[in-house]
Write a structure and sequence with these properties.
Layout: H1 21-26, H2 41-53, H3 76-88
Length: about 120
């Protein structure tokens, strides 16, 4: 079944009026979230992330940068692309973190998985 078979697109929020009678009687517990507009996916993204932890883990509705876009560059080439694109769009950017990255002390420096010498391989046959 295709979405257009049970949802009629509307310019504005149409609610259940935009759904076919068949959809209304066969799709259980369908909800629309009028505040989660597809024109800016950030709030819908945060909502989706929060779904994974509910109800035990409550999370902030906005991240530390709010609704602002964040980019990360690992290489000088990526940094150049980001800088030139920002200049092209005549949009300022604010540096959040310095260049380079270090592993935190809590990250394993050695793999916790022992090397497999082949002794553990399952023998066929």
């Amino acid at each position: 079944m295709r979405a257009h078979e049970f949802v009629n697109e509307a310019a504005d929020y149409a609610g259940a009026k935009g759904m076919s009678q068949q959809a209304l009687t066969t799709i259980p517990n369908a909800f629309v979230y009028p505040e989660l507009d597809n024109s800016s996916g950030y709030k819908a993204y945060r909502f989706g992330v929060a779904l994974a932890g509910m109800p035990e883990e409550k999370m902030d509705q906005n991240g530390p940068t709010g609704l602002k876009m964040v980019t990360i560059s690992y290489t000088p080439a990526e940094e150049e692309i980001l800088a030139k694109t920002a200049a092209h769009f005549n949009t300022p950017r604010v540096r959040l973190t310095p260049d380079g990255s270090d592993e935190p002390s809590y990250v394993n420096q050695k793999s916790p998985v022992p090397q497999n010498s082949g002794k553990m391989r399952k023998k066929n046959g």
